[in-house]
Amino acid sequence: MNKYQLPKLPLPLPLSGSQAGSFTEYTVTTRMPNIAHLVIQENNFSQVINHKLEQLSADLQSGYLQPLSNDNAIDFEDWQTYIKPYLNQRWLDIPWFVAETYFYRLILNLTNYFLPGEYQYLDPFLSQKQKSLETSIDSIIYLSSYLEKWLEEPQKQSNSSQLPLISALYFSLWGNRVDLSLWSASEDNRSNFDIQQQLNHILVDDSLAVMELLTQSQNNQIDIIVDNAGFELICDLCLVIFLLDSGFASQVNLHLKPHPTFVSDAMIKDVQYTQEFLSTANHDHVKSFSNRLSKNLAAGKLVLKEDYFWTSPLAFWQIHPSLKNELANSNLIIIKGDANYRRLLGDLHWDYTTNFTDIVTYLPAPMVALRTLKSEVAAGLKAEVIQELTTIDPKWLTNGQWGVIQLVNVDNS
């Protein structure tokens, strides 16, 4: 294992499913077994494979980790190293992030994802990804209309929360819950969307500082560590097209997963499927969105990349040197989603008031995290905010109704 740069603070203990009553315990004992059952229901795997998935589901609640069989995957040997310290432990007792990432890698192992044959490269979560995209067509139309409006507007207005770039950041932030909270269940009310409303649910908002950072230089390279496929990916691609076509960036690199994981995490082929989906839409603004996406891909301004680090159980500070050197060329790294945020903090029990910048000291370029809270990991929050949230919304850490836009600005000159 290569040497890496740790945060400059003492490291707390990791989250694990052994913490009674925690969201972590609920995930390992309930959510993960349900996901294994859903894989069985939504695919036509053999009885042998389904039996293995059923056994995995049963083991999660009180059983022990099982080793991977050799599936000849690029990361097989790495996973042998990652899992070796935990093979004689229960799923509930090992660090949560290790348990989750290994669970998804084990599903691929059990379903013969990497082996030649009937199920090779069959995404066990494909059905859910496609449904997520297909059921959000009305929201896609509305967001595409916003994109055209943003690209026509001046980039400076008196109300900073209505600046097009900041609006695009907000949409990217809230993308994974857009159908439930950005718009009401009634389609007729979607035009009543007001970004100002969402400010009350952003616990830390460094969006204006992000805009100021991007206006300091020309020909910015931006790297986005992507989270989910489906409508969230649409929101991220909307941000990408705005950055490129407005001149805030000359190149955007999308960093995607090399194989299915966490059910909906996006791969290169999910971006390609999304591009094809947009191209078939019968709406002028969606067609424009699709054309802009295609042109930027063809011109090499939007680059799709994958790396097995993104599907590993390693903390962000364990990033391998070649990927870290690649990210050092970036003017801004945008890190999306809850799981990526957990990796930034090592999925450890930090005090929620710990200075975020004091933890994330190890990245080679400025970084902004866009994250809706879906786990009991956080940093950089004010004590009075935490106290108020505990009163008004006891599940604020895990229900996805609260978000952060947290910038760590470093000098990478």
Structure description:
- The protein is an alpha/beta fold.
- It is 44% helix and 9% strand.
- It has a 7-stranded mixed beta sheet with strand order 1-7-6-5-2-3-4, with helices on both faces.
- Helix 11 links the parallel strand 2 (221-225) and strand 3 (251-256).
- The protein is globular.
- 44% of the residues are buried.
Which class of secondary structure composition applies to the elements? alpha/beta
What proportion of the residues form beta strands (DSSP E)? 5-15%
Distance between the termini: 28 Å
Oligomerization state:
single chain
The largest beta-sheet arranges its strands as 1-7-6-5-2-3-4
- The number of E-state strands comes to 7
The shape is globular
Low-confidence stretches: 178-193
Written as H for each helix and E for each strand, in order along the chain, the element string is HHHHHHHHHEHEHEHHEHEHHEHE
Percent helix, as a range, is 40-55%
Please report the number of helical segments.
17
Q: Mind summarizing the main beta sheet? A: 7 strands, mixed
Tell me, rounded to a whole number, the average pLDDT.
91
Radius of gyration: 21 Å
Secondary-structure blueprint:
Layout: H1 23-42, H2 47-62, H3 76-83, H4 96-110, H5 126-134, H6 137-152, H7 164-174, H8 178-182, H9 195-198, E1 202-205, H10 207-214, E2 221-225, H11 231-245, E3 251-256, H12 268-279, H13 284-298, E4 302-306, H14 321-327, E5 332-336, H15 338-344, H16 356-359, E6 367-372, H17 383-392, E7 403-408
Parallel strand pairs: 1-7, 2-3, 2-5, 3-4, 5-6
Antiparallel strand pairs: 6-7
Helix pairs in contact: 1-2, 1-4, 6-11, 6-13, 7-11, 11-13, 12-13
